[in-house]
Structures are given as structure tokens and as C-alpha cells.
């Protein structure tokens, strides 16, 4: 699973930004769940699950800002 997270973080900046578009942001939400499982962290796994359904309305904005500022989406180690 850590390889998946590493591959997601290794994407080019523009690809990360495109994946932050509202409908495609599900990619980062699933990535947050995988990251939580890879770290064996219940907290990050629950946060990842919550960003899939209820958080989908606003997480894309947070992800765009974070990808622009630091090159990674929210909670992607």
C-alpha cells in the first residue's frame, strides 16, 4: 500500500492539480483511506472515509490549495 501512496505523490504537479477537480477528487479521497491503512492509523482511515461522501463537497477546494502550495493533497504522507 505504501507503493500506491508513493506513486500518487510521485505524479507530476499538473496531474495532481487535474485530479483535484470536484468529480475526480475521489482519487485523493481513496488515497487518504489507503494512506491511513498503510500507516495503520485508525484516525487517518476514518478521515479518509469521511472525505469520500460527506467531505466531497468541500475537500476538492482544500486539495487544490494544498497541491498548489505544497505539492501534495491533504493527508498524503
How would you describe the overall organization of this protein?
The protein is an all-alpha fold and 77 residues long. The protein has one domain (2-70). It contains five helices and no strands. It has helices spanning 2-9, 13-18, 26-38, 42-52, 59-70. Helix 1 crosses helix 3 and helix 3 (26-38) packs antiparallel against helix 4 (42-52). The protein is globular. The model has no long low-confidence stretch (mean pLDDT 89).
Outline of this structure?
This protein has 77 residues and is an all-alpha fold.
Following the backbone from N to C, one meets helices and strands in this order, namely: HHHHH
Largest sheet: none
Question: Which residues form runs of ≥5 with pLDDT under 50?
Answer: none
Radius of gyration: 11 Å
E-strand count: 0
Helix/strand class: mainly alpha
The percent range for strand residues is under 5%
Shape designation: globular
The helix fraction, in percent, is 55-70%
What is the residue-mean pLDDT, rounded to a whole number?
Answer: 89
For the termini, the CA-CA separation is 12 Å
What number of domains? 1
Distinct helical segment count: 5
List the helices and strands and how they pair.
Layout: H1 2-9, H2 13-18, H3 26-38, H4 42-52, H5 59-70
Helix pairs in contact: 1-3, 3-4
Amino acid at each position: 500500500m505504501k507503493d500506491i501512496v508513493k506513486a500518487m505523490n510521485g505524479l507530476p504537479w499538473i496531474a495532481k492539480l487535474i485530479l483535484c477537480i470536484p468529480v475526480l477528487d475521489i482519487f485523493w479521497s481513496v488515497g487518504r483511506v489507503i494512506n491511513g491503512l498503510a500507516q495503520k492509523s485508525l484516525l487517518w482511515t476514518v478521515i479518509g472515509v469521511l472525505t469520500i461522501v460527506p467531505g466531497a463537497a468541500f475537500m476538492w477546494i482544500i486539495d487544490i490549495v494544498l497541491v498548489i502550495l505544497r505539492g501534495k493533497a491533504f493527508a498524503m504522507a
